[in-house]
Structures are given as structure tokens and as C-alpha cells.
């Protein structure tokens, strides 16, 4: 009996470790500086959005879960400049504001920093 319990405990520890590292790796960084061109970079609280929004595809249906995905797509013409900014970031922040919920920044210098 003891052996079986020990076996189960070990198995759970191993599965737990894999799940933990797997999640950490797949979620990407908690904070990301997005390239913001002439206006300066955009510090983005990634983890906070993941926790609040739940669904990765709110954003990642438009660009993949990869480093510098937005810049790469802008360079190839798959995304236009400011498309993510307007169609995702600002659009959602405005909608949340209208709905009377907590919302993110809406003015240039609250997103862009030099
Ligand atoms: C509110 C928008 C948003 C949501 C929701 C979101 N992400 Fe992201 N994610 C971004 C942005 C912006 C980047 C940076 C893209 C770039 O650098 O061009 C990014 C980058 C990433 C990267 C690459 C990071 C790197 O630099 O290596 C991973 C991995 C990732 N996200 C995973 C996830 C997962 C998993 C979820 C859901 C649990 C999620 N994201 C939800 C906006 C979002
Ligand atoms: C909610 C945050 C947010 C606000 C508010 C915001 N921006 Fe941005 N901006 C971004 C992000 C993210 C990017 C990079 C992604 C993209 O190009 O869509 C960006 C990109 C840019 C770029 C660079 C485009 C390029 O490809 O070189 C310029 C210029 C810019 N913004 C100007 C502005 C101006 C002007 C305002 C105010 C009227 C503003 N932004 C408000 C988040 C924001
Ligand atoms: C689908 C909705 C949604 C999208 C898309 C979204 N946000 Fe937000 N954002 C929010 C909400 C809701 C909050 C308020 C969260 C809170 O108070 O915890 C927020 C908060 C923020 C904050 C302020 C965090 C703080 O410390 O007060 C920043 C900065 C921000 N968002 C930037 C961005 C940028 C840049 C993008 C685009 C890459 C983006 N957001 C896309 C919903 C969104």
C-alpha cells in the first residue's frame, strides 16, 4: 500500500513539474516591450491580459505566439502599421471603457514611452 501511494505521489510530482514548465514556456514573457516606431516602445503587461481575458486568440488569431511576430508581419506586409494598435489594443480599451469596466490606456503617451 505504502509503495503504491509513494508511486502515485512520485507520478504526480513528475506530471506537475512538466505542466508547470510547459505552461511557463508557452505563455511567453509576463511583460513585453512592443516595437512602437517613432513614438517609442510600448510596455505591454502580457500576463495581466492573459489572466484577465482568458482567451489567447483574442490577440493571437491575428499574429502568432512568437517573438517579434508583429514586426515580422508588418515587414512582410501581412499587417499594416498601427493595425494591432487600432484594431486590438485601442478598440478593446474603448469598448471596456464604454461598458463601464476597468480599461487600458487610450492616449498616445500612456502606451508609448521613449
Ligand atoms: C491582449 C493581447 C494578447 C493576449 C490575450 C495574449 N497575448 Fe501573447 N502576445 C501578445 C503580444 C502583443 C505579443 C508580442 C508580439 C511581438 O513581439 O510582436 C505576444 C507574444 C507572445 C509569445 C511570444 C513571446 C516571445 O517574445 O517569445 C507567446 C509564446 C505568447 N504571446 C503566448 C500567449 C499565450 C499562451 C496566451 C494565452 C494564455 C497569450 N499569449 C495571450 C499579446 C497577447
Ligand atoms: C493602447 C496602447 C496604444 C495607444 C493608446 C497608442 N498606441 Fe501607437 N502603437 C501601439 C502598439 C502596440 C504599436 C505596435 C503595433 C502596431 O503597429 O499596430 C503601436 C505603433 C505605433 C506607431 C508605429 C507604427 C510603425 O509601424 O512604425 C506609431 C507611429 C504610433 N503607434 C503612434 C501612436 C499615436 C500618435 C498615438 C496616439 C494618437 C498612439 N500611437 C496611441 C500601442 C498604442
Ligand atoms: C480584448 C481586450 C484588450 C485588448 C485586445 C488589449 N487590452 Fe490592454 N487592457 C485591457 C483591460 C480590460 C485592461 C485593464 C486591466 C486591469 O485593470 O487589470 C487593460 C490594461 C492595459 C494596460 C494598463 C495596465 C496597467 O498597469 O494599468 C496597458 C499598458 C495595456 N492594456 C496595453 C495594451 C496593448 C499595448 C494592447 C495591444 C497589444 C492591449 N492592451 C490589448 C483589455 C485589452
Q: What would you say this structure looks like, in words?
A:
With 114 residues, the protein is mainly alpha-helical. It has a single domain, classed as Cytochrome C3, CATH 3.90.10. It is built from six helices and two strands; from the N terminus they run αββααααα. β1 and β2 form a beta hairpin. The longest helix is centred in the N-terminal third of the chain and has 26 residues. About 9% of the residues have low confidence. Bound molecules: heme C (HEC) (3 copies). Pfam families: Cytochrom_CIII. Its cofactor is heme c. GO terms for molecular function: electron transfer activity; heme binding; metal ion binding.
Quick synopsis:
Helix content is 58%, strand content 7%. The chain is mainly alpha-helical and 114 residues long.
Give keywords.
Cytochrome C3; Cyt_c_III; 2 strands; iron; globular; binds heme C; 7% strand; two-stranded antiparallel ribbon; electron transfer activity; 114 residues
Strand segment tally? 2
Strand order of the largest sheet: 1-2
How large is the radius of gyration? Answer: 19 Å
Bound small molecules, deduplicated: heme C
Strand content: 5-15%
Shape: globular
For the biggest sheet, the summary is:
2 strands, antiparallel
Uncertain parts: 13-22
Q: Under CATH, the topology is which?
A: Cytochrome C3
For the record, what CATH class applies?
Answer: Alpha Beta
GO molecular function: electron transfer activity; heme binding; metal ion binding
Protein name: Class III cytochrome C domain-containing protein
Cofactor: heme c
Binding site for heme c: 46, 49, 56, 59-60, 89, 92-93, 108, 111-112
Amino acid at each position: 500500500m505504502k509503495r503504491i501511494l509513494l508511486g502515485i505521489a512520485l507520478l504526480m510530482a513528475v506530471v506537475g513539474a512538466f505542466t508547470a514548465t510547459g505552461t511557463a514556456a508557452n505563455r511567453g514573457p509576463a511583460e513585453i516591450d512592443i516595437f512602437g516606431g517613432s513614438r517609442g516602445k510600448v510596455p505591454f503587461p502580457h500576463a495581466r491580459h492573459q489572466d484577465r481575458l482568458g482567451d489567447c486568440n483574442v490577440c493571437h488569431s491575428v499574429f502568432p505566439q512568437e517573438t517579434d511576430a508583429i514586426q515580422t508581419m508588418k515587414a512582410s506586409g501581412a499587417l499594416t502599421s498601427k493595425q494591432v494598435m487600432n484594431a486590438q489594443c485601442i478598440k478593446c480599451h474603448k469598448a471596456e471603457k464604454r461598458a463601464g469596466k476597468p480599461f487600458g490606456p487610450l492616449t498616445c503617451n500612456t502606451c508609448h514611452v521613449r
